[in-house]
Design brief:
This protein is an alpha+beta fold. Helices cover about 40% and strands about 30% of the residues. It contains 4 helices and 24 strands. It has helices at about 1-15, 20-55, 125-195, 200-265; strands at about 60-65, 65-70, 75-85, 90-95, 100-105, 110, 115-120, 270, 275-280, 290, 300-305, 310-320, 330-335, 345-355, 360-370, 380-385, 395-400, 405-410, 410-420, 420-425, 430-435, 435-440, 450, 465. The strands form 6 sheets. A 6-stranded antiparallel beta barrel has the order 3-12-15-14-13-16. It has a 4-stranded antiparallel sheet with strand order 2-17-22-21, with no helix packed on it. A hairpin with a 4-residue loop joins strand 14 and strand 15 (about 360-370). The protein is rod-shaped.
């Protein structure tokens, strides 16, 4: 028990707080806190000194502005920014639903009107055309047979008509003979009664008359038979003519079926509706395409998008307050942002009849006098609408204050300020215009440049603009 009690007392003593140690530590803390503020003040002094030294080494400059000047500024009505759009453009779709077999064009390709752009699988359509061709051949063969039957019937009718004519002549001859023999009999009877002729002569005359009568009756029956045959021949001709008409109708129906089958097959060939340039391929081989009006699920409608670059024009938004100055036919100068040194002449083609209430603008369409070869849809362009006078194709000029021009080594240039640093931009100075100088190359307008730069100023140096 004594041993355990001793150990417990020692353990409690080891956990006791050393107040002397705490007093010593408190003294160090007071020392650190006392030194903090003098150290912070010293650091601030050092920082301020470094900043002052740095500012003392920064060159103080004055600046001016580079400006792009248009010769049409005295004739300018309104300037607007817009984009090039083709007046003739199309998303070319298939007329029938099917799987795309081939796409024969790529983006940027120029195609002629009616050029083949793509093909849809057409196995069924080819079979329909082949069947229609066979049906047409059968129908035409039917016409040939019907025509032959008609010719044969007409020949039989002609033969029957000739026989009737012969039989009619035979009847006439037989009747004439009968009349003659009857007259002979009457004379023979008169002579016999007068005792001039014999009974034998009378019998001979009577027999001749009877024979003639019998021949006349035979000729009459033969004529009736021939007339019945000609009626039959004429009936067969009428039937043959009807069969020929029917055969020709079957040919017309077969031709229509073939034309429809060929038209359906032709719909599997997707062709260019006009001459132009392919803008995008909207579908690839293996994909299912369908006409736009079917709305078939899982299928695409457009196969390619194309436009006629010859119809490119510029659409710009003009504020309502300025629209009264612009009418159809107003002259304008068009400058593509990608080619600022190539102005183009044009005129207003259309002032749209509606406004955009959200922007308080009206869309104006400006057409090129001659569409430039470098023009592309969706390019940005600046349109300057002008009143009469001025040269629409006169080049813009870039002017800077004459004092901004300096020389470093063998190169003339200006120092362009960007942020707090300057960059030396080489230029070719041109003619003086009052207190300004025309610059060629390098600057494009809108830059802030250093005026009267000191000889010590170098590319990339940090500067401070004077107030």
């Amino acid at each position: 028990m004594t041993t355990d009690s001793t150990k417990s007392t020692a353990g409690l003593q080891s956990l006791a707080i050393d107040k002397g140690s705490m007093r010593r530590r408190g003294g160090v803390g007071r020392f650190v806190r006392g030194a903090f503020w003098p150290l912070l003040a010293g650091a601030a002094v050092l920082f301020a000194g470094a900043w002052w030294l740095n500012m003392a080494s920064v060159t103080e400059v004055t600046t001016g502005k580079v400006q792009r000047v248009t010769p049409l500024q005295d004739f300018e009505l309104v300037t607007a920014i817009g984009y090039l759009v083709p007046r003739t453009r199309a998303s070319v779709a298939s007329r029938v639903q099917g799987r795309l077999a081939r796409v024969l064009v790529d983006e940027g390709d120029e195609v002629a009107a009616n050029a083949l752009l793509a093909e849809i699988e057409r196995g069924e359509e080819d079979a329909d055309v082949a069947r229609a061709v066979a049906d047409l051949q059968v129908a035409r063969e039917g016409v040939r047979i019907a025509a032959a039957n008609l010719a044969e019937s007409e020949a039989a009718r002609a033969s029957a008509e000739a026989t009737v004519a012969e039989r009619k002549a035979a009847v006439v001859a037989a009747q004439a003979t009968h009349v003659e023999r009857d007259a002979n009999l009457r004379r023979a009877e008169e002579l016999f009664r007068a005792g001039v002729s014999t009974e034998a002569a009378l019998d001979g005359a009577r027999e001749g008359r009877d024979v003639a009568r019998a021949l006349a009756e035979v000729a009459a029956r033969a004529l009736e038979s021939a007339e019945r045959r000609i009626a039959e021949a004429r009936s067969r001709v009428a039937v043959a003519e009807a069969e020929l008409v029917s055969a020709r109708s079957r040919v017309s129906a077969a031709e229509a079926t073939l034309a429809r089958a060929e038209a359906t097959r032709e719909n599997t060939f997707i062709r260019a509706p006009f001459a132009g340039t392919i803008l995008r391929r909207e579908a690839e081989p293996g994909e299912v395409v369908s006409p736009a009006n079917t709305g078939a699920s899982g299928s695409k409608t457009a196969v390619v998008a194309m436009a006629d670059f010859r119809t490119l024009e510029v659409e710009v938004d003009v504020y309502e307050r300025d629209i009264a100055r612009i009418t159809a036919g107003t002259l304008c100068r068009i400058v593509l942002d990608s080619f600022p040194d190539q102005p183009h002449a044009g005129k207003v083609r259309l002032v749209r009849p509606t406004a955009d209430r959200s922007k308080a603008t009206i869309k104006v369409v400006a057409a090129f006098d001659a569409v430039p070869a470098v023009a592309r849809p969706e390019m940005s362009a600046r349109v300057v609408f002008v009143k009469g006078g001025g040269d629409l194709l006169a080049m813009d000029r870039v002017e800077a204050p004459a004092g901004a021009l300096t020389r470093r080594g063998e190169q003339d240039g200006v120092f362009v300020l960007t942020g707090r640093k300057v960059a030396f931009v080489a230029v070719q100075p041109g003619e003086r215009v009052g207190e300004r100088v025309v610059l060629r190359g390098g600057a494009g307008g809108g830059e802030q440049v250093v005026l009267d730069p000191p000889a010590s100023l170098q590319d990339g140096a940090e500067v401070r603009v004077k107030d």
